[in-house]
Amino acid sequence: MQIKQYDVVVVGGGIHGAGVLQAAAAAGYSALLIERAGLASGTSSRSSKLIHGGLRYLESGQFALVRESLRERAIHLRIAAELVELKPFFIPVYRDTRRRPWQLKVGLWMYALLGGFDASTRFGTVARSEWSSLDGLKTQGLEAVIRYYDAQTDDALLTRAVVQSALSLGAELAMPASFTGATLTEDGVTVVYNQGGSTVETSARVLVNAAGPWAPHVGGAVEPPIPIPDVDLVQGAHIVLPFSVTAGIYYVESPTDGRAVFVMPWHGATLIGTTETPYRGEPDKVHPLPAEEEYLLAVARHYFPAFKHLTREDITQRFAGLRVLPAATQAAFDRSRETIFSADREPKPRVLGIYGGKLTGWRAAAAHVLERISTSLPTRPRRAATDQLILRRPV
Ligand SMILES: Cc1cc2nc3c(=O)[nH]c(=O)nc-3n(C[C@H](O)[C@H](O)[C@H](O)COP(=O)(O)OP(=O)(O)OC[C@H]3O[C@@H](n4cnc5c(N)ncnc54)[C@H](O)[C@@H]3O)c2cc1C
Fold it and tell me: pTM higher than 0.85, yes or no?
């Protein structure tokens, strides 16, 4: 039997796999995406759903990441206007808040600088006379409320929209289909996956491993063995509560440990997240822990007095996802959020793995992948540029 040949085969239908599929198709390559369960069924439906520069990454000096993320945010607002919305963010500062108003303003000034001082990087203070419009936010001890702007999306819809764009450029999708292994050849890879109970063999010039928290497992199924970066999985939980904040997104310090937590409007309810809990189990089994739910409920109760009596019984939805971070001993909060790209060899990689990264940075990550693998691919006529392709809300 003759096996089908692709320029690029991608494993994983999260935002990164979707992005690489679209970038490969836009660059004129034949491309196949293999997804085991459903598009965005992994981390890409369990994020905080922010397309943001990452204000807090300034504190850990990740300026290049913030600059790139703000650039990507601006691109999203242009090409994905149906899916990404600029929203006001409020940072309440109380007498005992760790970050003082002047520190926040210095941070926001740097944020604006890295964002090229465009209109969306404006920030200021909410007048005391307007505090009553802030969804019942606690005013006892409140000294100032800082307002700035960042963007919110629906991560799963965004992922589907990117795949839809890739398919419209001629890319192919095998789903549900599970990657089971790959063998390196002199100038490519033989890829094996299971679809509908049958084993399918195909060949690719390059295999892109975009399996998120499953990436070490997918990389481990390549023969002969390839390098796998040393990473840790860190769980982040969210809860949904049946009251609605409408004025914007609140960026608050957890009353438990001072970590930054978001309180966000979400489909007429409120989404609160997230946590950072080291995870050592199977990625499939991740779920919010009772202690994480209590931690997030404590935020709602502390900042919104009307919700003082909410308990875990009131949670209407809960989910947890896994961050892939470079292995280290320091707290997850302080670790680099830069994406790790790992090739089996340089130049002319046959396998390229994407480890970690941000929802916001999917397009830039995909562009980087295409650049890295271009030495392994023939020249083809380009079909489109991904920063110009309009992303439509999937039907
Ligand atoms: C709690 C949390 C909050 C976050 N919040 C934000 C945020 O607000 N903004 C932001 O920019 N970023 C955020 N991130 C980061 C962002 O969500 C992730 O970087 C991104 O979703 C990762 O996407 P991915 O495609 O790499 O992985 P995933 O979305 O996990 O996709 C991997 C896919 O691979 C598939 N797969 C696995 N094994 C196989 C196999 N053998 N065969 C076929 N398919 C397979 C899985 O089914 C899955 O669909 C957050 C992350 C977490 C954990």
Answer: yes
